[in-house]
Request: fold
Amino acid sequence: MANQSLQLVLVTEDPYNAETPLSALLNEVTPLDLVYVRDHFDIPQLDATKWSLDVNGAVEKPFSISYAELQALETKTLAVTLECAGNGRIQMDPLPKGTPWGYGAVSIVEFTGTPLFNVLKMAGISDRAVEVLFRGADRGEVEPGRNEWFARSLKIDMALNSDTLLVWEMNGKPLTPKHGHPMRLVVPGWYGMASVKWLTQVTLLTEPFSGFFQNEHYVYLDDEGTREGDPVQHIRTRSLIVSPVDGAVLSKGELDVIEGIAWSGYGPIAQVDVSVDRGDSWLEAELVPPSYPHGVQRWRFKWSSQTPGRHTVLSRATDALGNLQPASQRWNRLGYGNNGPHVVVVSIQ
Amino acid sequence: MANQSLQLVLVTEDPYNAETPLSALLNEVTPLDLVYVRDHFDIPQLDATKWSLDVNGAVEKPFSISYAELQALETKTLAVTLECAGNGRIQMDPLPKGTPWGYGAVSIVEFTGTPLFNVLKMAGISDRAVEVLFRGADRGEVEPGRNEWFARSLKIDMALNSDTLLVWEMNGKPLTPKHGHPMRLVVPGWYGMASVKWLTQVTLLTEPFSGFFQNEHYVYLDDEGTREGDPVQHIRTRSLIVSPVDGAVLSKGELDVIEGIAWSGYGPIAQVDVSVDRGDSWLEAELVPPSYPHGVQRWRFKWSSQTPGRHTVLSRATDALGNLQPASQRWNRLGYGNNGPHVVVVSIQ
Reply:
C-alpha cells in the first residue's frame, strides 16, 4: 500500500494530539510517521545518554539503570495494538468533553524492549509491594493551580507479565520524542494511558496508587459522575471498517469488498460480522491471516447485495472470550472505552 | 447561490426517497428539483383532468370536487418548512430501522392552494365528527400479506386551521408526480407524514382514526416498544449548520462565519446558540431576517477563536415558546422526531 500522501490528522496542537489516517491501518504495521500521538502536556526533550531509570520504593535494592545498560538486557519484540482510551469519543452522544478523537487513535506498532520483570527482579520486590508506579517526565496543569506528573500504576502480577515491556524502539527505530524517547512502558492489551512515555521512575508501592490520571482521569463515570468499577484498563473488543470510507460515493460493483480490522485487549478475535442493513441482519466476515496475540485481526466481507441508494455498513467483533461489541456507543461522562459499532455511510449510484 | 451542480441525494430507489443537499437550504425557498422526496410506495400517476376529491363521512352533503373547481376557490400561498419525521435518523444510536435519512429530509417550499375549511364548509360538518381522515392514492404492502393505503387524520380544529391547505402548486409550478400531483394536503408545523400526497378522499370520522400510518407507524416507541404520547405530529425545534460542511478542512480564517437554519413547528425561532468547544460554552448567533411564520430562520455566527486542529461545532435553537433542542439525539425505536444537536466536525490547518 502506498502511504506517500498520507499524514497524521491533527486533533489538537497544544498539547500535540494527532490521529492515524484509517487507510493506514490496513498495513500489518502502521508506518512510524503515521502512528497516532497522544500527549497530555509539552513533549519532554530527553537526552538518552544522560537519562536513567530510577527503580525505588518497596524494593530490596533501589538503583538506577542507564539507557545502555537496559539495552544490554534480554530483548523482546512484539507487534502491539496501541489504542487511546478516548478513541471514538466523537461518536458518543451527548458529546463528552475531552480531546475530540475520531476513530484513528489506534495504531499497530512493533515495539522492541526488555520485559519489565528483568528490571524488577534486579531490584528485588518487597513482600509488602502491591503495585508498581510508573512516572513520566511529562508534567503540567490539570486544573487551574494544580500541576501533576503523568503517572499510572499496575498491580504486581500485570507488571511481572512477560509481555509488559520497557521499550526503546518502535518499528525497528529508536523512539522519537513524541512517542516517549528514550524509554517508555508498553502494556499490551491495555489502553494507551498505561504505556507511560518518557519513563523516569518505577516505584514499588505498598498501597494502591490514587493519582490524578488513575483516580480522577481515565476512569468510567456515569451520568451523575459516579465512578464505575476499575480505572480504565483493558482495551474493549472493537472493529473498524477501513474500506470503503465513510461518505464514499461508489458506482455499483466498483468496490464489492468491505475491509477492516478488529482487536481486543482480552484475547484474539474469534469472529467479525458485517451488516449492510442497519443491523437488521449480520453476516460473518472472513478473517484474513496472520493473527498475532496483541496485533489486529484483518477481515474482509464480500458485499454482493448492492442496490442504488444510501447504505449504512456496520461491523461488530467478538473475541475468543466471547466479548461482543455492544449495539450502541458506550457512553460515559469522560468518553472512554467507547467500542460501539463503526457505522460507515456509503452511497451506491 | 448557484445550484447548477447540486442534485437530490438518493436514499432509497424503491420506493424512491431522496434528500435535499444541505447547501441548498441557504436559499430562502428550496429550488423545486432539490426538494426532498419521501415515498412509501410506488408513485401514483394521476391525470388532473380525471381526478376529483371525494368529501364524505359525517357530513351533511357528501360531494366530489374537480381539480378546476378547487382552483377556482380562494387561493393562499405560504412558505412552509416541510420536514420528514425521520430526518436525522442516521445519527441516532443505536441506529433505528427505517429509511436512513441524514439531515436533508427538510425543505422550504412555497405552496399555493386553498384552505381546507373552504371545502369542509361546502360539505357541512356533522356535530358528531371528531376527526378528518385524508387518504392518498398510494397503497402497498406494509408487512408480508398486508396492504394499506397511506392515510392520516387530523382533529377537527387542526383541519379547520386557516393554514391547513389543499395544495396544487409548489414554488409557482403545478405539483410534480413525486410531490403529490395533482393535489396534496399541507399541514404547516407538522412533520411531513401529515401532508398527505395524491389526495383522493377526505372523510369526516366520528371515532379517532387508528390506521397503520397513525397507530403503528409514525408513533414514538420506547426501548420496550411501548408507545409514548400522541402519534408523531409537530415538528420539534431544530437547527442545522449548513456552512461549513461536516468534515471540512479549512485554513485558519478561510471561513470565519458559521451559517445555518433553524425552525420549529410550535412557533418562530427566538434564539440560536453555537458552541465550538463540544458544548462547553455557547454563544448567541445572529438571526438573519426575514422570518416567516412557517419558514426557516437563517442565522450566522462569527467564529473568531479558530485554532489549528479538529473542532466540533454544535448549534441549538430555542423557539418563542421556550422549546430548546435537547443536548443529545432523541432516541426512539422507530427513529422519529430526532432533534438532537447537529454536530459538524471541522479541521483547521
Chain B has a mean pLDDT of 96. The longest strand of chain B covers residues 131-143.
